[in-house]
Amino acid sequence: MSKQDSADVHGEQFGVKHIRRVYREGMFEDKTPDFPVSFSDLREEAFEEMSWKAKAYVHGGAGTEETFERNKDFSRWRIIPRMLRGVADRDLSTTVLGNEHSYPLMITPLGVQSLLHDDGEIATARACAEMDVPFVLSSLSSATMEDVAEALGDTPKWFQYYWASDRDVATSFLDRAETAGYDAIVVTVDAPTLGWRDRLLEKGYYPFLEGEGIGNYFSDPAFRDSLARPPEEDPEAAVDRFLSIFGDASLTWDDLAFVREQTDLPIIIKGVLHPDDARRAVEAGADAVQVSTHGGRQVDGSIAAIEALPEIAEAVGDETTVLFDSGIRRGAQAFKALALGADTVLLGRPFAYGLAHSGQEGVEQVLENTLSQIDLTMGLAGIDDVDDIDRSAVRDEASL
Ligand code: FNR
């Protein structure tokens, strides 16, 4: 879909236009969509394109994978549709941290996208620019944050921050993100150590050891200054240095003051699952919290993100922006998360599989399908403004 089309359909019957086009092509042009419609078909076709490395890295979660599986189960929450409410002109736009977003959907930070497609993060960024969907770039990207910012143009962009135990590198990342035009910093707090992931351990595979996903480090002046020889001359030593400064399990809430002092950008704390941690994040100066299980990749057996969301929204949602990811595969799930208190939601694996399937075009297709589903769900539920999706739109099945 071109930007022009996207602008045309934005806000008015986005989803209806999409499905009408598909039906017309099917009935009159004998043409069925060549891009998979359901998530399971998409994943299956993406797997055909993916290397064993990409599959091991992207698919599945920690340990038994029960959190990874449970994340996807939103069925406890039932949408209660309302009728005859005049929903012809639906507005999907919303304001997040003071910025206008065209849709209540963003792309979540997902590392090492070069494993999924040669154009990696640049392809995803171009798709976001085309569709006007905000993008969150992982620290662990193969492309540099500056190149990704350029590909995004004026599309809203956030930078996800893993702060390095080397304070010079940690500071440099924040400076670079601000200079490159990122609008916010997402501090991921749910990865003090690596998770136990059978699928990677079975293969003995860790992408960073072969230099994938560390473009931001290799291009960083402070990181380069800390090396005896530049990464181009001695990549092994550079990877070792990266591994030695990546992650810091000694961090506490008090350390957030460091990030708060270094940047004027809004700060989002990603990976919060307990209401007390959400309150603590706000006390420490965060502008938003992101409810997330990291896609079930960290704590085997943890609460699912959708189970944690209502309590956290209740604890801090009136004053603080609440974001949600983990498990969203369809628009109706996004709708439920918005109803349970999220101000916007972030899409993970579906876009990754779109990228593996057909690069930029694949990501655009995933976004178009998901946005269409959100639009249709809103219309069918009797809501014409994203900002009006609230707790009254869903019921807990236990109360039915
Ligand atoms: C992630 N996630 C992640 N999060 C983050 O803050 N920084 C990162 O670099 C990554 N990298 C990453 C790689 C892969 C392959 C996956 C699947 C996930 C977590 C991500 O932002 C998000 O929380 C999950 O993807 C949400 O789960 P679903 O919806 O994708 O299952």
Automatic annotation (TrEMBL):
Cofactor(s) annotated in UniProt: FMN
Gene3D superfamilies per the UniProt record, alphabetical: Aldolase class I
Enzyme class (EC, first level): oxidoreductase
Domain (FMN hydroxy acid dehydrogenase) ranges: 31-399
UniProt keyword annotation of Zinc present: no
Superkingdom to which the source organism belongs: Archaea
Any one GO MF annotation of this record: FMN binding
EC number: 1.13.12.4
Oxidoreductase in keyword set: yes
Keywords, alphabetical: Flavoprotein, FMN, Monooxygenase, Oxidoreductase
Family: Belongs to the FMN-dependent alpha-hydroxy acid dehydrogenase family.
Protein name in the entry: Lactate 2-monooxygenase
Organism encoding this protein: Haloquadratum walsbyi (strain DSM 16790 / HBSQ001)
Organism phylogeny: Archaea, Methanobacteriati, Methanobacteriota, Stenosarchaea group, Halobacteria
